[in-house]
Amino acid sequence: MLTYITRRLIFAIPTVLAIATIVFLLMRVVPGDPALLIIGPFATPEQVEKLRVQFGLDKPLVQQYVTWLGRLVRGDWGKSFQTRSPVLPLLAERFPKTLLLTVFGLLISLGIGVPLGILAATRTHTFVDYLSTATAVFGISMPMFWLAIVLQLIFGVSLHWLPLSGSGKGLLTLDNLWHLVLPALSLGLPYAAQYLRFARSSLLEILGLDYIKVARSKGLSEWRVVYLHALRNALIPIVTLLGLRIPWMIGGAVVIETIFAWPGMGSLVVRAIYNRDFHVIEGFMVFLAIMVVLSNLMVDVLYGVINPTVKYD
Amino acid sequence: MRRLFRHKLGVLGLVTVMLVIALTITSFFWTPFDPFKQDYSVVMVKPGTHGHLLGTDQLGRDMLSRIMYGARYTLFIGLVITLLAVVVGTFLGVTSGYLGGVYDMAVSRFLDVIMAMPDIILALAIAATLKPGLISVIASVGAVGWRGFARLVRAETLKIKEQQYIEAAAAYGSGTGRIILKHVLPNLIPTIIVYSSLYTPVAILVAAALSFLGIGLQPPSPEWGLFISSGRTYLSFAWWISTLPGIFLMLLILGLNFLGDALRDALDPRLRGVL
């Protein structure tokens, strides 16, 4: 297992590099002179030229790339135009709050989606099943930012139960967690719907298989059949799906953070986009690439642990 | 029993989508009020007052008219993005699947790398480099949407390639291009249709999210995502500015999802686990 992890980590590096390269090209090659975009349309040609030299944009692309890459691996991810502070520490500082939001969102979506999906699968064609399925389809179709606003409306504006924006002091404090409720719900509920559907169909498929019939005919209690035998196997594809969904959750977190003024990386990046703060955008993309690769690896390892037939060597 | 259920849902979905299309077409001929006319005497009135069925926004503009007008943008953007994604994705998928070799390897590796990143983030990055507006929305989401198509089409092409009629055609002396056009592509059509109907709602959502964040269409374009974001400031006393457009958006996406599910079940039930 350890060799597998090491091998995957080594392979992860070219993947991250590849994404970083794509980001690099995106920021420089796409139509629209980056210097012009940064400085705005009211600058004189001399100012634009000065900026281009300052950012090394006048040098050949390959040379820019090599310099950029060299700086990247050394930890120099450039400086934010706005705050004039280095990008990497800036991202690292805001990362914990984003991680907190994503983790809780994931917990909510799994905690609500999977049990309900199981419930629906064990009671097919009943009212419970139809209700869950209908709710799930609604959840999938709901725009996340709209749900966030509706939740704000109900719980923040009308009922005054929960705060509308910002985060509390500290990370795992009660104050902070209280502020986390609405954002995490907005992030988690739509994905809960996805997990619900998937858990339901996955379990249903397993329940239709022969060995389940055997277990039942052996006289095992329904409880044992479903929870001990079927569920274990049904969880495997759910875990796989989980791995694919984590990057999407991070994407959703960007929008949620903006709505709730949650001080994570997402709101930072959106502000950076408004202000054409290119280094921050680049840094975020590379950071995200690393997180995506790592989370994929974690899920694969988890998969190997859950599914004993899969052997990694 | 379940197939019938799905079938009914599919019809419901179709009806919903048709309704939205009907609203859009109507908007070309008639709207209750002028979508752009600001009337300060009726600023932020509740739905139902003075003939404004869905209320007015912060500048006194009728919500229903703006929503009807805005439907044009949503549908247009969704359609164009999907078309773009289909064309690029199918081209890359078919060529890499059929031709194989180094080209296939390169495309597959590239696909593996960029498939990891979510649509929204990549679209954000692309939109960051372009001037905000209609083109930037279509370009950013379209540049990202082809990934799923490419992967799916490539997988299907690989399966089709193994069929005997392809071998037969090649033995006849048909050129590669001819085989692709006459034999491979027609068999890909059901898959493409199903995936398109499932992708369009995603495209619409991402485009709306971009506009919501302020990176897509700009005010005063009456795009639904823009409404939802501009209404946030007035949430406590004029909740309808943000919530009502969202309901329309949700209904459209819901309808498209139902339709897509039904199409998938009808055309290729094998895909149920995949898509």
Description:
The complex is a heterodimer of chains A (313) and B (275). Chain A is mainly α and 313 residues long. Chain A has twelve helices and no strands. In chain A, helix 1 runs antiparallel to helix 12 (278-306) and helix 7 crosses helix 10 (222-260). The longest helix of chain A has 39 residues, at 222-260. The relative contact order of chain A is 0.14. The mean pLDDT of chain A is 81. Chain B is an all-alpha fold. The longest helix of chain B has 38 residues, at 176-213. At the A-B interface, helix 1, helix 6, helix 7, helix 10 and helix 11 of A face helix 3, helix 4, helix 7, helix 8 and helix 9 of B.
User: Structural class, from helix and strand content of chain B?
Assistant: mainly alpha
CATH superfamily of chain B: MetI-like
Fraction of helical residues of chain B: over 70%
Please state the oligomeric state of the protein chains shown: heterodimer
Q: Any idea what the radius of gyration of chain B is? A: 22 Å
CATH topology of chain B: MetI-like fold
SS-based structural class of chain A? Answer: mainly alpha
Strand content of chain B: under 5%
Greatest interface (CB-CB under 8 A), with counts per chain: A-B, 52 and 46 residues
- Helical amount of chain A: over 70%
Largest sheet of chain A: none
**DSSP strand (E) fraction of chain A?**
under 5%
Counted beta strands of chain B? 0
Counting DSSP H or I runs of 4 or more residues, the number of helices of chain A is 12
Q: Could you say what the CATH architecture of chain B is?
A: Orthogonal Bundle
Q: What keywords describe this structure?
A:
heterodimer, A: 313 residues, mainly alpha, 0% strand, B: 275 residues, MetI-like fold, 9 helices, 73% helix, elongated
Concise account of the structure shown:
The complex is a heterodimer of chains A (313) and B (275). Chain A is an all-alpha fold.
Task: Summarize the topology.
The complex is a heterodimer of chains A (313) and B (275).
Chain A: H1 2-29, H2 34-39, H3 45-54, H4 61-73, H5 87-122, H6 127-141, H7 144-158, H8 174-207, H9 210-217, H10 222-260, H11 265-274, H12 278-306
Chain B: H1 2-29, H2 63-99, H3 101-115, H4 119-129, H5 134-161, H6 164-172, H7 176-213, H8 224-230, H9 240-267
Helix pairs in contact in B: 1-2, 1-9, 2-3, 2-5, 2-7, 3-5, 4-5, 5-7, 6-7, 7-8, 7-9, 8-9
